[in-house]
Specification:
Blueprint: H1 7-20, E1 23-28, E2 40-44, E3 47-53, H2 58-69, H3 81-91
Parallel strand pairs: 1-3
Antiparallel strand pairs: 2-3
Helix pairs in contact: 1-2, 2-3
Amino acid sequence: MDSELSDSFLLQQLENLAARLEIDVRYESLADDEFTIHSGGCKVLDRTLILIDRNRPLPERARLLAVELSRYDLEEVYLLPRVREFIQASSREKNLPRR
């Protein structure tokens, strides 16, 4: 995590970005004995939703949210430079298609 931004501030900035993109972010317990459930994005009734396991540490929740947000065109969206860098760094972790 970037030492210049606290984990909680970074997560708040990412949540604000999701809200501006009209993406719902929910933190749920994804633990299940019968199924393997992973954090990630999906569509529910024409709404975009990102589900993140609330049991994950704060830095990992921020990284997971950044990975999902990196799938969107953010070129014209104003972001703090460190937040944009974090999203871009997170997107390089996986070769994700754009939405």
